[in-house]
Amino acid sequence: MRRIVVVGGSIAALTAAESLRAGGFDGQVTVVSEEPHQPYSRVPLSKGVLAGREPAKSALLPAPGEDIEFRTGARAVRLDVRGRTVTLADGTEVPYDGLVVATGARARRLTGGSDLVVRTLDDAEALASRLATARSAIVLGGGFLGMEVATTCRALGLEVTVVDLVPPLLRLLGPWLADLAVAAARDHGIRVRVAPDGVTVVGEHRVRCGESVLEADVIVCAVGDVPNTDWLRDSGLPLDAGGGLVADACCRVAPGVVAAGDVVSREGRRTPHWTNAVEQGRAAAAGLLEGASARPYRPDPYFWTEQCGLDIKISGELPLTGPPDILAGSVNDRSALLRWRHDGGAATAVAVNHRLPVIKLKRLGAGVPAPAPART
Amino acid sequence: MSRILVDFDRCEGHGLCEQTAPEVFRLDDEGELHLTREEVAPEDERAVAAAVRVCPVAALKVRP
Ligand SMILES: Cc1cc2nc3c(=O)[nH]c(=O)nc-3n(C[C@H](O)[C@H](O)[C@H](O)COP(=O)(O)OP(=O)(O)OC[C@H]3O[C@@H](n4cnc5c(N)ncnc54)[C@H](O)[C@@H]3O)c2cc1C
Ligand code: SF4
Q: pLDDT per residue over A335-360, tens digit each?
């Protein structure tokens, strides 16, 4: 292998590119990224950056090393797996010996292009400027992202209503923890509207839920994400029903092709979270360099969210059924260390407003991940 | 030599930096981050850059 091309420009792509170098690859590494920006973290976009507490540039991540070519504003539009070529939007053909697909996901939209969403730096800046003059907001979608955006809107003094087809966070967290979070949201002054019969956006300021119509200055759409695999449609690579790129336990997709991050579907589902993108970025590099002898990686299910005055850190599989054991603190005070035991001996540990080294949380929950290699 | 800067207001104690470059980043029993050294030796540069990058809240910076 002389040339490896990484398509994508965020944490999975960068981690894979750097891990190729750390793994001893001394050929050419080229990263092609659609966005005009240097790489940045999306995590603060729904939190400090949206609230205006932190400047957008505080989310920037260190640029890759000088021995990695990083092209911005370069969108891949087609892949020829046989000819081992990626075609860019401007018609340039980029040949490769090895390919890393790390094109992540984009915000799902309900009405087309004009929805306000929070996925990119530009989205967050556009929304922040709208929120600055708004008095009320409707947030469509009660997942992690929707609840974080609602919290930020509330902190800015807006009246906020979260609207979803199902109770917020229920599918993600399970009933016990979802109830706790929704109670905190209500105490925070966030209204929650469950509309099982459907939600329709009927204009820039209006949403219909069943019989009633809600109005607000700003409507934010946080209804999930869609993997960026349109450019792979004709490539013959395996996509699942939701468009996720199917990869094995070593992140391999096809000979010479690996994938990492939000774009990946593994064991029938995507895991669109930061830690997963890092772990898979490393594993994908190893999968490409070591081929059949690569070690399957062990996923580290670690999730967190900050919303409605709750700082929640989770180690272990979700969602959770039944009530937890309370290992420390008090649920009434909303400061506690909790654990759910699952059949077969596994467990999920959750810290709610409870400071604890993550390593200890992981010991109580999913277990301590295998020590990372010293570099990348 | 370049220096590592930690924005302790941002740090959430996720510990990904420690997992990536354990010889430089350490979380104590309270979940507080400590640096075993603030200056980055040339041979550590890449590992430190990788640790800075995996921090999900961009709490770490390296100043040349
Ligand atoms: C607002 C927000 C808050 C979040 N908060 C948390 C959190 O608190 N905790 C958590 O664990 N996770 C959080 N996440 C999720 C986390 O950010 C993602 O899991 C992570 O960004 C995935 O990284 P990735 O590199 O796989 O994909 P992405 O970050 O989606 O990056 C994909 C990259 O590929 C580029 N690209 C796409 N298509 C093409 C193409 N055709 N050609 C070239 N380049 C292309 C894109 O421009 C982008 O740069 C949050 C996400 C958002 C949006
Ligand atoms: S990865 Fe970032 S948030 Fe986590 S301990 Fe290190 S500096 Fe703090």
A: 999 999 998 889 999 999 998 888 88
Contact A324, A291 (CB under 8 A): no
Residue A155 · residue A167 · CB < 8 Å: no
Mutation site, B19, B23, B29, B45, interface A, largest A CB count within 10 A = B19
Q: What is the value of ipTM here, to two decimals?
A: 0.89
CATH homologous superfamily of A121-221: FAD/NAD(P)-binding domain (3.50.50.60)
Do A3-36+72-107+225-293 and A121-221 come out as alike in CATH topology?
yes
Which of A212, A203, A189, A194 has its CA nearest to residue A142? A194
Domain ranges of chain A: 3-36+72-107+225-293, 121-221, 309-365
How many CB atoms are closer than 10 A to CB A143? Answer: 21
pLDDT at A375: 45
* Residue A110 CA to its chain's centroid (Å): 19
Calpha distance A259→A3 (Å, rounded): 16
In total, chain A counts a number of residues equal to 376
CA angle A223, A224, A230 (to 5 degrees): 125
Between the alpha carbon of residue A272 and those of residues A204, A233, A265, A360, A368, the distances in Å are 29, 21, 10, 24, 21
Of residues A100, A87, A108, A120, the one with CA closest to residue A8:
A100
- Among B53, B55, B60, pick the best mutation site for testing chain A contact (most A Cβ within 10 A): B53
Question: Considering the domain A3-36+72-107+225-293 in this protein, what is its CATH number?
Answer: 3.50.50.60
Could you tell me if A20 and A289 are in contact, meaning their C-beta atoms sit under 8 angstroms apart? yes
Q: What's the pLDDT band for A369 if we cut at 50, 70, 90? A: low
How far is the alpha carbon of B26 from chain A, nearest alpha carbon, in Å? 10
Identify the residues whose C-beta falls under 6 Å from ligand 1. A 7-13, 32-35, 42-43, 45-46, 75-76, 102-105, 118-119, 145, 228, 231, 261-262, 272-275, 277, 303-305
Q: How far apart are CA A300 and CA A370, in angstroms?
A: 9
B19–A369 CB contact, under 8 Å = yes
Do B40 and B4 form a contact (C-beta atoms < 8 A)? yes
Residue-range domains of chain B with CATH: 3-63 (3.30.70.20)
Cβ atoms A365, A359 nearer than 8 A: no
